[in-house]
Amino acid sequence: MLNEILEWADKIGKVFSTFKIGMIIGALVNLLIIIVLFKLTDIFIRKLQSRIQATNENAESLKRIFSILDKIIKFLIVFIIVASFLQSHGYSLTSLIAGFGITGLAVGFAAQNTIAAMFGTLGILSDKVFKIGDYIKVNGVEGTVESISLRSTKVRSLENFLVTIPNDVVANHIVENVTRAHKRRMDITVGITYDTSNEKIERALEILKYVAQVHLDVHGDFVANVEELDSSSINLRLIAYAKTRVYNEYLRIRGEVLQDIIKQFRAENIEFAFPSQTVYMGK
C-alpha cells in the first residue's frame, strides 16, 4: 500500500515538474493586463462616441466605425502582448510576425482608401469641422452638406448637383464653413467715367457710404474709397458685411445694395463707365 502511494506521488511530481511556474504566473499577469487594457479601450470608445453623438446630427449612422475601431484596437493589444510573452519565453515568432507583416501589407494596400476615409470621418466629427445643413467650401466644391457617412460627405452644390467627396479628401484640404461666419463680405466695385467732375466723385463716395449705412441688413464697419484708375473708368470700391450666414439672403442683400447705388447714381447724373477706347488721329 505504501509503495503504491509513493508511486502515485512520484507520478504527480513528474507531472508538476513539466510545468514552469514562472510561465504560468506570467500568463496570468499578461491576461490581467489584457483585461485592463480592454476596459480602458471600452471607456475610450464610449467617450469618443458620446462626444461625437452630442455634436453631430448624423452620428447615429456612424456607429459601425466605433465597432470596427474597437475590434482593431483590441486585436492589436492581444497580438502585441501575446507575441511579447511568447518571445520572452524562448519561442521564436520571426516567421509568424513576417507572415502577419506580409498579410497586413496586402490588406493595407487593398483597403488603404477605406481606412483613410474612416480616419477622415473621425477627424471631421471630432474636430467639429461641419455638420449637416452647413454651407461649406472644400476642394473646389461649394454647397450645403446633406449627409456624412462612414466613407464620404455629400454636398448639394449651387447648381443643385449632389457631389460626393471622400472623407480623406475633406480631411486633407482646407474647409471653409460659411455657415459659421458671423457676417458675409460684400466687395462691390463701381466704375464711373473719366469726365466725372471732382465734386461728383466725392458725391459718388458719399452715396456708397450712405447706401451701406441705411441698409438694415448691413453692418456698420464698411469702407468706401477710390480703388484704381482703370483703362476706361475710375473705379470706386465698397467693402461691407451682410448680416447673414445664408447664401440666398446674402445674394438678396447684395442685390438691394446694388439697386440703391444704381438709383442714386442716376439721380445725381453720375455716369457708369463701360469698356471704351479713345482714338487720336494724327495730321
Features:
three-stranded antiparallel sheet, single chain, alpha+beta, 18% strand, 283 residues, 3 domains, Alpha-Beta Plaits, 7 helices, 8 strands, SH3 type barrels, five-stranded antiparallel sheet
Question: Could you walk me through the main structural features you see in this protein, from its secondary elements to its overall organization?
Answer:
- By secondary structure, the protein is an alpha+beta fold.
- It has three domains: 2-91, no CATH class; 135-180, SH3 type barrels (Roll), CATH 2.30.30.60; 184-267, Alpha-Beta Plaits (2-Layer Sandwich).
- It is built from seven helices and eight strands.
- It has helices at 2-17, 21-55, 63-88, 94-126, 167-171, 198-214, 247-267; strands at 135-138, 141-148, 152-157, 162-166, 175-177, 184-192, 223-229, 234-242.
- The chain has a five-stranded antiparallel beta sheet with strand order 4-3-2-1-5. The chain has a three-stranded antiparallel beta sheet with strand order 6-8-7.
- A hairpin with a 3-residue loop joins strand 2 and strand 3 (152-157).
- Helix 2 (21-55) runs antiparallel to helix 3 (63-88) and helix 6 (198-214) packs antiparallel against helix 7 (247-267).
- The radius of gyration is 36 Å and the shape is rod-shaped.
